[in-house]
Predict the 3D structure of the following.
Amino acid sequence: MNSPGELAALRERVAVLEAEKRTKHHRVRSVCSVLLIVLGCVLAPLGTVAVWAAHIVGDTDQYVTTVAPLADDPDVQKAASERVANAVLEHVDTAALLQQVAPEDRPALERALGRLEGPLDDALHSLVRSTAQQVVASDAFAKVWTEANREAHASIDKALTGQGGGLVELSDNAATLDLAPLVERVKERLVAAGLTFAERIPPVHTEFTLVQSEDIGKVKRGFRLLQLAGNWLPVIALVLLAAGVLTAVGRRRALIAAALGTVLGMLLLGLALTLARPLYLDALPAGVSRPAAGSVFDILVRFLRRGVRMVAVLGIVVALGAWLTGGGRWARSVRGVWRSGIGAAAGHAGLRTGPVGPWVHRWRRWLTWAAVAAGAVAVVLWPAPTAMVVVGLALAVLAVLAVIEFLDPEGHPNGVTPVAGEAPRPDA
């Protein structure tokens, strides 16, 4: 028989072996959790770009809706009017055209140009440019802009993904709009102003650059892959993050780490967009309006920036919620202040909870998770959520949790149910 000392030694040895086994198991779980969370945090910003690529670049209607406001942008209007005016003036030989003016048209021509100061060439150039500005500032430009962008979307798609219609031509790594309809409208207005020789200007096709970069060819394949990933990449990122949290030994800390890691990824993506703008504009060739190109860049990535802010705010909300529900000293203090405030409000109201109170207390955990889940589903199903939408939904969830706390009699200080006409007891 084994002595009591030997039995104690065996028990201690078994305990050590079990502790080592648990430690090894926890270490493996921790490593797997870290890898899953890191991979999910890396894919989160790529998933945001993938959604943008699928919905903006891959969807013609969405693209046209996105760029439609540019028709009212002052920089775009200025660049377009300059392109149209220069295209008209390239085909105007003042001396030759004046010789072709019929005698009966000369009075109208003199009246049209006589109101302008300076030499005849300067007067004609000034008139053409002002006419082009008027055309671009009119409703006609918005219509031409929308129609031209719808037709040019194939070239945008081809520029960024290598796909597009077979008739699309990508010249010098640039996607352009043809402003010929605006040139025709300028010619019509010049004729109406008395410059009948403008009718003899041949059809003119002038291009307005939308996207141009020598590096487009280098990013086509990666952008195309992101476009094909579409809405699947964010789902994969979310699944990896969830798997990493569930695998972790300390799930609450893992959830906070996953949320903050996602926020960091969004901040890096936002920083990349901020740095990409000046680099893109500096690389544009001469002749391309940088202010107009900046407006085009901003409008194309507007929804991408909105998605970055939305996901970042969502990550902050999740991290804050996970921290507040933890067992830390500061978290407990915050919860104590919250419950004290709810209890004071309940006592001041002097309301009976009746049978609702015990029912709420019994199902409180499920009601809390249902409120949180409803907020998460609302974020997912919202057509185009923004950071403000996330904040609003978070406040709505907090309001529901406050109602649950208010109706739970054991959630009030001292566990006292408020009763109308009665003062709360000092102790219970």
Q: What stands out?
A: Confidence is low (pLDDT under 50) at residues 165-169, 413-428. The chain is about 75% helix and 5% strand.
